[in-house]
Amino acid sequence: MSSIPLKPINKSDRALPLSARLLLFWQLLLRRLRAADHPERGDVPGWVMVTLMSALLVAALLAIAGPALTGMFNDAIQQVHK
After folding, report:
1. Among 1, 14, 25, 71, which residue's CB has the most CB atoms within a 10 Å radius?
2. From residue 63, how far is each of 7, 57, 74 by CA, in Å?
3. What kind and span of H or E run contains 74?
4. Is the pTM of this model over 0.85?
């Protein structure tokens, strides 16, 4: 991936009005972001779905096994205190 400089290339570019400099900066930024976008970057929505499903699975297990886990924890703490 080639590096796209965000600085003006020569000193004559500094004479541009602020709006033109902002437009130039925006175009260079978009060009850099597009250069980083390639098909091997990963499936972000897929990872979000996996994370949400994992969180839901943990919540469901805690809802079902919560009382049993609480009982086991309390029994273990009582045995330590004896």
Report:
1. 25
2. 56, 10, 17
3. helix 44-81
4. no
Structure tokens belonging to residue 64: 């079902």
Structure tokens at 74: 């309390």
Q: Which of 34, 27, 30 is nearest to 8 (CA)?
A: 27
Across the chain, which distance is largest between two alpha carbons, in Å? 83
Structure tokens at 14: 């500094």
Residue 12 has what pLDDT?
A: 58
Kind and range of the H or E run holding 26: helix 18-36
Q: What is the pLDDT along the chain (82 residues), one digit of tens a residue?
A: 455 556 655 655 556 787 888 888 888 888 877 766 666 666 667 778 889 999 999 999 999 999 999 999 999 999 998 7
CA angle 46, 51, 54 (to 5 degrees): 125
